[in-house]
Amino acid sequence: MASQIFLDGEFVDRENAKLSVFDHGLLYGDGIFEGIRAYDGNVFKLAEHIRRLYDSAKSILLDIPYSQVEMAELVCETVRRNHLSSAYIRLVVTRGTGDLGLNPYTCHGARVFIIAEQLAMFSSSLYEEGIKTVTSPTRRNRTDALNPKIKTLNYLNNILIKMEALAAGANEAIVLNSEGYVVEGSGENIFIVRDGVITTPPCYLGALEGITRATIIDLALELGLTVREQSFTRHDVYVADEVFLTGTAAEMVPVVECDDRTIGDGTPGPITKRLHQVFQLCTRRDGMKAYPQEAIS
Ligand code: PMP
């Protein structure tokens, strides 16, 4: 059966899910999105994703034509309609159809679509063995130009960075900000481990406030591990005992090489493996809890 896409109030077959070429999401990247996952039939951290979507919308003065509760229900319904137990869900809100100029006030109202499909970002062997990374020459957008806290459709910075990784024969790139501090991956947050201490850069350096990042911090603290939010440079990545990336699409993936330097002994380290285990349990265990109606206003 063709996948069912939610588009502006109805479910349509994949081939009928079409938007105008005058949509400002397409013309200018003027819109916002969320990547969400469902595990074993339950949508993970849905309230958090919905909240971030509405924060992004507020920041760019975009009116979403649904309440947060309605939107959460539409996400769940999209998963159900596609008979998926585990899925990657893409929720997109564009500024809508307007004229060719930049002026967003020519647009006739936001367009909303939701896709739910299977997606694995890396092959299963890479999740076991770890990925190879490079630091990208392209720096993350400055927070005072396009704040990375807003999950906008304007992902060209991230795409260029991903292309640089692939051109260098790596699986993923590690991104620095314009001051040279490590920020995140092309579409994931980053953690390093040294002498048992887990460090992740503060998001104000230019990272998205990742929902997986927050989950990993909570789980690490629950395990009694030390977690710091502190800036670091690529030197700290090179000499770390362990490095891993987190994101909804990527989930949690170990990094075993950066710029030709082997991380630790070149295999995923014990803290990464332990966190990965509890993360997998948590995504299955907390699915229902992750959609508390009362958490959505
Ligand atoms: N950083 C960027 C730039 C991203 O696009 C993503 C994925 N959406 C993340 C980090 C990870 O965020 P999350 O864990 O909320 O998916």
From TrEMBL:
Catalytic activity: L-leucine + 2-oxoglutarate = 4-methyl-2-oxopentanoate + L-glutamate; L-isoleucine + 2-oxoglutarate = (S)-3-methyl-2-oxopentanoate + L-glutamate; L-valine + 2-oxoglutarate = 3-methyl-2-oxobutanoate + L-glutamate
The name this protein goes by in its record: Branched-chain-amino-acid aminotransferase
Record-linked InterPro entries: Aminotrans_IV, Aminotrans_IV_CS, Aminotransferase-like, B_amino_transI, BCAT-like_C, BCAT-like_N, Class-IV_PLP-Dep_Aminotrnsfr
Major enzyme class: transferase
Keyword line: Amino-acid biosynthesis, Aminotransferase, Branched-chain amino acid biosynthesis, Pyridoxal phosphate, Transferase
Pathway: Amino-acid biosynthesis; L-leucine biosynthesis; L-leucine from 3-methyl-2-oxobutanoate: step 4/4; Amino-acid biosynthesis; L-isoleucine biosynthesis; L-isoleucine from 2-oxobutanoate: step 4/4; Amino-acid biosynthesis; L-valine biosynthesis; L-valine from pyruvate: step 4/4
NCBIfam families (alphabetical): ilvE_I, PRK06606.1, PRK08320.1
Species whose genome carries this gene: Alicyclobacillus dauci
Cofactor(s) this protein requires: pyridoxal 5'-phosphate
Domain of life: Bacteria
Family that this chain belongs to: Belongs to the class-IV pyridoxal-phosphate-dependent aminotransferase family.
Signal sequence residues: none
GO molecular function, one term: branched-chain-amino-acid transaminase activity
Function according to Swiss-Prot or TrEMBL: Acts on leucine, isoleucine and valine.
Name of the encoding gene: ilvE
EC number: 2.6.1.42
